[in-house]
């Protein structure tokens, strides 16, 4: 049987295979547009996942995501105010800001315990009626969650549980009998720093309450209000009545001072201080009606770099009248005890 090849008849019309160069230019343009759109949508999806992951991991605003090669100092913006305590001088918050502790110095001495919305959870009163009391500064132990409250005229630091039950008084060594504890701040490892208005010094205690060292002798400080130690081991002392911030190295040697003066970054009357979880240093400048922010130096013996300040004098939103204390949480919020305005201001990055 003979195979028959089927071939087109001579002269018949034949449709050649379409050429991309000849027939498909518009299709190619549409294809490119679709690919470009898919690329944009993919990048947006990746960005959204990155931002969502950042928030879920760190519970911080997107604006705080570190960007490689970009080092721009940001200042927080005013968010809202909390009311209740009169003439607040000290403030402490837990890590996520869900519980806020504020000292009241007008009327009956007390520590107000507030939730994040400012609702009153508890009021901690004085431990007895036989002694004059003024609750000044407060701090939360990072190891136990206990609340430490400095009571200057009673020469005591009261220790409460998170719900406000008095557990004990912090017992200093016999060498510090008659002290006047003022500023209290904890390090992450449980060490406690206490400024002493009686002899104008700073005492460092270990997590068990044993005195490790005392800094400040022979009129070196005048009414120090706060002391902190940064990640590099440098000690910062708000030397209030001398109008300066004094910095010491890890070994206790003097590094230098941020002085009193009118220039950017200079101080007037420094009071409360705080370090946030990014290592930035916040200093309340009571007479300048601001909170100043510094970046600790990368040089172990260097002074911190001034980044900027927020706030101004007044009674309106975002204005201060003699602020006294500052603290931060891990959600990018900054809390300021706005003393003469009878409120706590909350600022956010």
In short:
This protein is 11% helix and 38% strand. The chain is mainly beta and 349 residues long. It folds into 2 domains: 23-58; 80-348, TolB, C-terminal domain (Neuraminidase, 6 Propeller), CATH 2.120.10.
Fill in the keyword field for this structure.
Neuraminidase; 349 residues; 2 domains; four-stranded antiparallel beta sheet; globular
Walk me through this protein's architecture.
With 349 residues, this protein is mainly beta. It folds into 2 domains: 23-58; 80-348, Neuraminidase. The chain is 11% helix and 38% strand. It contains 2 helices and 24 strands. The chain has helices spanning 20-23, 25-58; strands spanning 77-83, 88-93, 99-104, 110-115, 120-124, 135-140, 147-151, 156-160, 166-170, 181-186, 192-196, 201-205, 211-215, 224-229, 235-239, 244-248, 254-258, 270-275, 281-285, 290-295, 305-310, 323-328, 333-338, 343-348. The strands form 6 sheets. Strands 1-24-23-22 form a 4-stranded antiparallel β-sheet, with no helix packed on it. Strands 2-3-4-5 form a 4-stranded antiparallel β-sheet, with no helix packed on it. The longest helix has 34 residues, at 25-58. It is globular and about 95 Å long. The model is unreliable at 4-12 (pLDDT under 50).
| Amino- and carboxy-terminal Cα gap | 89 Å
Total beta-strand segments: 24
Number of helices: 2
Give the ordered list of helices and strands: HHEEEEEEEEEEEEEEEEEEEEEEEE
For the biggest β-sheet, the strand order reads: 1-24-23-22
Indicate the mean pLDDT.
89
> Number of folding domains?
2
The assigned structural class equals: mainly beta
CATH architectural type of the largest domain? 6 Propeller
Shape descriptor reads: globular
Rounded Rg: 30 Å
């Amino acid at each position: 049987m003979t195979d028959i090849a089927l071939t087109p008849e001579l002269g018949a019309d034949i449709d050649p295979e379409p050429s991309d160069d000849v027939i498909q230019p518009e299709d190619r343009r549409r294809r490119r547009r679709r690919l470009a759109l898919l690329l944009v949508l993919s990048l947006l999806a990746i960005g959204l996942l990155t931002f969502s992951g950042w928030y879920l991991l760190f519970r911080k605003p997107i604006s705080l995501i570190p960007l490689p090669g970009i080092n721009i100092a940001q200042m927080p913006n005013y968010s809202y105010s909390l009311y209740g305590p009169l003439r607040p001088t000290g403030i402490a918050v837990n890590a996520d800001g869900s519980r806020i502790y504020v000292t009241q110095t007008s009327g009956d001495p007390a520590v107000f315990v507030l939730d994040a919305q400012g609702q009153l959870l508890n009021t901690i009163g004085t431990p007895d009626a036989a002694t004059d009391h003024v609750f000044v500064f407060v701090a939360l132990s990072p190891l136990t969650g206990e609340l430490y409250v400095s009571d200057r005229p009673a020469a005591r630091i009261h220790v409460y549980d998170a719900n406000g039950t008095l557990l004990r008084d912090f017992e200093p060594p016999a060498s510090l009998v008659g002290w006047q504890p003022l500023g209290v701040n904890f390090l992450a490892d449980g060490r406690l720093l206490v400024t002493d208005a009686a002899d104008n010094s700073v005492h460092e205690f270990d997590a068990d309450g044993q005195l490790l060292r005392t800094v400040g002798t022979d009129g070196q400080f005048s009414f120090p209000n706060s002391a902190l130690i940064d990640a590099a081991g440098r000690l910062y002392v708000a030397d209030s009545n001398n109008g300066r911030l004094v910095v010491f190295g890890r070994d206790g040697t003097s590094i230098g001072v941020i002085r009193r003066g009118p220039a950017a970054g200079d101080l007037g009357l420094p009071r409360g201080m705080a370090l946030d979880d990014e290592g930035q240093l916040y200093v309340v400048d009571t007479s300048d009606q601001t909170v100043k922010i510094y970046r600790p130096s990368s040089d172990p013996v260097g002074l911190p770099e001034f980044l900027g300040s927020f706030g101004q004098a007044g009674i309106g939103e975002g204005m201060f009248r003699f602020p006294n204390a500052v603290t931060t949480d891990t959600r990018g919020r900054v809390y300021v005890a706005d003393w003469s305005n009878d409120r706590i201001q909350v600022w956010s990055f």
